[in-house]
């Protein structure tokens, strides 16, 4: 078959890998000038490694991603250091390390025994129970308030939900989403030698060697049914015909590209909520967190103007980046939030004053360079009974398939699940059963 894939992200490339190995002709169309999608990175001339535009890492439990890397023969290029995550409470940062029962150590020192016991029991249930379906019938807000107790809810879960999904969605997100975050994630975090862009470039290179055509800076403007169950794609060079097409776009973009989809499928795509992301990357002359903390979870109720501060060079050595100390400050926001229209200078004016709360010695003179990255599609919002709302991978148009992070539920978005759904879509396209 002659197969088109829209999007050269990790999911699209994973699908292409299986399809070309099955003997088919595969062409990937990518509107950007590089592969990688939301996992793409950038690189300064004096850096040895790239930096992701939107912070990324792998978990030791990411079997689909790590399995693909093993198939490609690159397992020795995966690194798993043990960085420190901290939580903000009572005007201080506390390492969020866990003992074997999944109880944060600082909780033992500062909270009543009843809260510790409840945390341990509720956390163990979420960690070891495989039954997530009943949890999607209740909101994460209600479940955590009831089973963890009000003090832990106010400390950890309420700020997480508010920061991740905004006030409009925080009380509507279902508990299966939170179960998935706690059920399989690990404290060890991984990356690829050279950064995620190095992996994506190497993967694209392998695909080209296998015969896949990757057309960068080539967006597709529309998809319509052609004669004899073919599909016609509107490309910059004119209409092109394919036997099958896999779209790895956002749901809203697929709805625009294929308006000929039945009304109920289109409505299902357009009804899916998602949050956007705004991330500022800073190259600093000095280390910001002198304690060596990597990931800072931040409650906006404490006056922080962003969700997370991530010091990448407390995870990977600054020597990989020419001695620069790389810091991300980012947030998930509604797609119509003003931060999607403000200039980089205006956003920096709002973000930078808070950096002294991480290091009182910080001054703007520490900054060597800044970058701003934004996307309106970064985090799906799973409401109650969300499994009933997920679009099928095979669309009602014969030969047209759809695979996005909005369909990996109950799991959260990430490259591991992009690989999983991309390969699952390829199996369906090849006539396999799941």
Please tag this protein with its features:
434 residues; alpha/beta; FAD/NAD(P)-binding domain; Polyamine Oxidase, Chain A, domain 2; seven-stranded mixed β-sheet; five-stranded parallel β-sheet; 20 strands; 23% strand; globular
In short:
The protein is α/β, with parallel strands linked by helices and 434 residues long. It has helices spanning 10-21, 63-72, 105-110, 113-128, 140-147, 150-170, 175-184, 196-210, 251-257, 263-271, 344-351, 415-429; strands spanning 2-6, 25-29, 41-42, 51-52, 58-59, 78-79, 84-89, 92-95, 189-192, 213-215, 222-225, 231-235, 238-242, 244-247, 273-284, 293-297, 308-311, 325-333, 367-381, 400-402.
Report on the architecture of this protein:
The chain is an alpha/beta fold. The chain has helices at residues 10-21, 63-72, 105-110, 113-128, 140-147, 150-170, 175-184, 196-210, 251-257, 263-271, 344-351, 415-429; strands spanning 2-6, 25-29, 41-42, 51-52, 58-59, 78-79, 84-89, 92-95, 189-192, 213-215, 222-225, 231-235, 238-242, 244-247, 273-284, 293-297, 308-311, 325-333, 367-381, 400-402. The protein has 3 domains: 2-74 and 193-272 and 389-429, 3-Layer(bba) Sandwich (FAD/NAD(P)-binding domain), CATH 3.50.50.60; 98-184; 273-381, Polyamine Oxidase, Chain A, domain 2 (Alpha-Beta Complex). Helix 4 packs across helix 7 (175-184). It is globular, with a radius of gyration of 22 Å. The two termini are 21 Å apart.
């Amino acid at each position: 078959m002659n197969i088109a894939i829209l999007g050269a992200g990790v999911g699209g490339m994973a699908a292409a890998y299986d399809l070309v190995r099955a003997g088919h002709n595969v062409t990937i169309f990518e509107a950007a000038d590089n592969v990688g999608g939301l996992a793409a990175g950038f690189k300064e001339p004096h850096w040895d490694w790239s930096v992701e535009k939107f912070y990324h890492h792998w978990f030791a439990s990411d079997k689909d991603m790590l399995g693909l890397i093993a198939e490609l023969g690159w397992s020795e290029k995966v690194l798993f250091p043990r960085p420190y995550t901290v939580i903000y409470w009572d005007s201080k940062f506390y390492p969020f390390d866990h003992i074997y029962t999944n109880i944060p150590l600082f909780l033992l020192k500062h909270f009543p025994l009843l809260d510790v016991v409840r945390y341990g029991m509720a956390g163990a249930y979420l960690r070891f129970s495989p039954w997530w379906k009943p949890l999607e019938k209740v909101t994460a807000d209600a479940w955590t308030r009831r089973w963890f107790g009000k003090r832990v809810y106010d400390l950890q879960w309420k700020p997480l939900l508010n920061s991740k999904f905004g006030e409009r969605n925080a009380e509507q997100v279902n508990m299966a989403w939170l179960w998935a975050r706690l059920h399989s994630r690990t404290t060890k975090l991984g990356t690829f030698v050279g950064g995620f862009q190095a992996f994506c470039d190497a993967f694209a290179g392998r695909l080209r060697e296998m015969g896949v055509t990757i057309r960068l800076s080539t967006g597709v403007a529309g998809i319509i049914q052609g004669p004899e169950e073919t599909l016609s794609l509107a490309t910059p060079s004119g209409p092109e015909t394919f036997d099958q097409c896999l779209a790895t776009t956002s749901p809203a973009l697929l709805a625009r590209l294929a308006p000929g989809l039945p009304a109920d499928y289109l409505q299902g795509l357009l009804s899916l909520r998602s949050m956007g992301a705004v991330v500022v990357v800073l190259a600093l002359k000095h280390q910001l967190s002198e304690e060596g903390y990597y990931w800072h979870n931040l409650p906006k109720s404490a006056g922080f103007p962003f969700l997370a501060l991530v010091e990448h060079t407390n995870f990977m050595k600054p020597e990989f980046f020419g001695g620069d100390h790389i810091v991300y400050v980012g947030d998930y926001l509604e797609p119509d939030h003003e931060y999607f229209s403000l200039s980089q200078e205006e956003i920096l004016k709002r973000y930078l004053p808070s950096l002294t709360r991480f290091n009182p010695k910080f001054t703007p003179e520490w900054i060597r360079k800044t970058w701003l990255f934004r996307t309106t599609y970064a985090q799906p919002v799973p409401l109650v009974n969300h499994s009933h709302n997920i679009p099928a991978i095979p669309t009602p148009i014969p030969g047209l398939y759809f695979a996005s992070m909005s369909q990996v539920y109950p799991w959260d978005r990430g490259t591991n699940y992009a690989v999983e759904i991309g390969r699952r879509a390829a199996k369906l396209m090849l006539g396999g059963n799941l």
